[in-house]
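Lab channel / #folding
Pinned by the channel admin:
"Please post every new chain as: sequence first, then the structure tokens as a reply. Keep commentary short and put observations after the output so the thread stays searchable."

First post following the new format, from NK:
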Amino acid sequence: MIEIRDLDECTTKDEIAEALSTSLSAQHINKETVKTLRKAYAGTQVAVAALPDDLAAKALKLGHIRIGWVNCRIRGREDTLRCYRCWSPGHVSARCKGPDRHTATAADKQAII
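Reply from TO:
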């Protein structure tokens, strides 16, 4: 997975997929490749795209991609499971054997993480 930052507020998933396809020379990239597109600070957006390992490595090597009028940063992203019940990584609450911390205060959570 890669994260594309500094997108213009008007950028769509189609434009991101087209730019990825062009810059990585891959024809099979479509808008379903872009998993999320969310608002960020100062009128920008952040997109997360799921690419095969070889294309993700190629994109990370580029470091930047031009989408519309903007040069956007590309970073790697790892999605790790985190249990909301005990706040430990690597499992979900359905299989949790740890202590119940889901009602902990913000200070408690900071100490746990």
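NK: Residues 13-24 form the longest helix (12 residues).
TO: also worth noting, The CA atoms of residues 39 and 45 lie 4 Å apart.
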